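Quarterly update, task 2.4: adenosine-5'-diphosphate-bound model.
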Amino acid sequence: MSTEQSIALEKIALGKTDLGKTDLGNIVLGAIADDFTGATDLANNLVRGGMRCLQVIGVPQETIDLQEVDAVVVALKSRSCPVDEAITDSLAALEWLRSQGARQLFFKYCSTFDSTDKGNIGPVADALLDRLGASQTVMVPAFPINGRTVYQGHLFVGDRLLNDSGMQHHPLNPMQDADLVRVLSRQTAHPVGLLGHSVIAKGASAAFDHLSALAEQGTRHVICDTLDEQDLDILAEATVLIPLVTGGSGLGQALPAQYRAQGWLESITEPGRLQPASGSTLVLSGSCSKATLAQVADFLVRHPEGGFALDPLSLAESDQQWEQALAFARQQLTAQTPVLIYASADPEKVSAAQQVLGAAHAGALVEEALSQLAITLVNEGVGKLLVAGGETSGAVVSALGISTLRIGEQIDPGVPWTQAPLAGREAPLSLALKSGNFGSVDFFTRAFEVLA
Ligand code: ADP
């Protein structure tokens, strides 16, 4: 980096960055993720980039052992909550990560920039910058390998603009504008700029100079074009020394190489190494997404006697079906044959149940039933647990009282094996948490082969 670039960096960081200090702890990256499966997705990419990574659920209230950890991802539920709550929770996470010595901070959101005009991406980024005393951050939502790219500040999903990708109908965060400079400008009072592809194509130094020039003009947020992995590498190199970066999980895979180049991170041979898995295996599914329905069907073809279907209408009537599911699972586990308990159902069945019970109540009944099965069966010796469904995973993890997940090997893009210590258990629980549309069709079988 040239002297001029060092001076420019000081301005962006307002001289308050901890970057480059040598007396910090071993935590290189501290990330704040706005939802649970998004946190796992980022953590997975950090491991693939060569960092040993721990995911914590919410801001830890007790001391956590961070030896042999290079990156920590705090999973929040701040994507769709009221903006004040999102800011408070994100700042608490920031303070905790800084107290652990994190050199660089990463605010992780969805690669489809899920947010509304009222927030939460802009207000949270502003609050984090204010608290860090920094003057600029970058916004890099792209995840090219999953078809999310940005050109001239416009976000594409595959060959469709964001507002024509299906995301315009999202129930919580409908995305009706693909121009991210415009989208973000509605969420912050500060100037929003663009780091366009023509500059990125010239390399990291040119990209950094462009960011500095924008900072000079008071541009606080910079949307970054990204067409491919190479662009992510250039962006990672250009931003490795700024206090706060923001974006999707794609940037997470490119940053570790830059940390190594800075001498902050050793070369780690098996960043995703977990303790040997033990105990019996169980699959619980509360996801009704298309990919999950195909995975359930695939499992039932392989193991026609291995599945038990839960129905929220029956669950609402009495405990009888839940008791039957438990008895079925126990019998399968004793016989050491695969077992899947699922509420997953096609859209007609789901909407029939929702019409009688209401969507929230139907969902809550399923989540409660699966969570109670998880508690009972883990207690009885299940040691390898696969849960399908983002909300369902959140419910099961919180019912089990899990607060940290060590991130292991990837099963499929976005879904790694993880391990969690559990009170009263010697060996940790191996967990795979799969949100709706992730995973190949044979995921429920292959996941356990990856672990073996
Ligand atoms: P995904 O990641 O596929 O979106 P989630 O677990 O996030 O899956 O959401 C699925 C929701 O649907 C959960 O709240 C779950 O309890 C609920 N659900 C599952 N099965 C049924 C069903 N048969 N009828 C109604 N709701 C269901």
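Highlight for this quarter: The mean pLDDT is 93.
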